[in-house]
User: Fold this.
Amino acid sequence: MNLKQNFQNQIAESLFPGNLSEEKACFLRRFAPENHPDNRVSTHKEIAKLMKSDLTVYCEDKINQTIRKVIEVVHKAYEEDMKADGVNTEGLLNLKAGGTLKGKEDEESDKKFSPWKEAYKWLWNHKYLRWVDINGWEILKKQAKTALDWIQFLTEQEMASVGVDTRALKPLSPRSSAQKIDPIIPINQPLSMIVDLAYPNYQMLLLYRSAETKYVLCPSLGYAPNGVNKPPMTLPQEGSVAHDNKETFTFEELGKEEFLAIAVENPLNLDWLAPCKDEDLPVWNAERLKELFEQLEQQDTWQIFYQSFEVV
Assistant:
């Protein structure tokens, strides 16, 4: 799961549809994450060599002209967005073909305005984050295992009727593809959440999404300060803000409620996963999803689970 590669491939296909052209190859190489402006090894000459390998036939002396063509296409497609993000869009097209000033090589002119660098920074600092914000949840959802009823919501009476350590829960079993209807949650009913996933001692991330909100439920000071999975987990946990205030989960709006759990064997090192008073219920956003993907891509010992409910 390489999120950045997926993003760049999607943008490349949008800007340069069809077979691998010189401009498409240039975009994929010059604007690749690893060939960022601070990478002094990735000069235009080196990019041209890579393009020649991709295309089999390419005149390396054309690299400046090719880069300019790519910038023109990016400018045409995203000019309004780039302007709104503060990019000097006029400057992107008013310099020489290689995107430099006064005939100097781009690599020797770091303090000067460089169109390709400006376009690169906009692509990864603005366009990418918006793409993650729109697509990140669905990408995680597609990675989820077969539909499994791993979350249950119990009333106070139901909680009292089962053993604390031996939760007499309903059997958890996969739903067939024919079962399209989401489980239901009663509106305005105080409920406790039971999360039952067979990954003991894994770090457990529990993300929640509704029409209006995007929260990290676990780990969080609000509901689950202990992010280590001890199945079955009951939320709110002892020591959480909700538990101390004698609060549970109450859904006050009709509609769909979605949950994503990520069980990670090697704990993730992300500041916003450390429960704190300043943000007792963290909001997950594009920047945080980006950081999450980057750390998940560094290991392969994790599993994703998805479940949705309908509040009625």
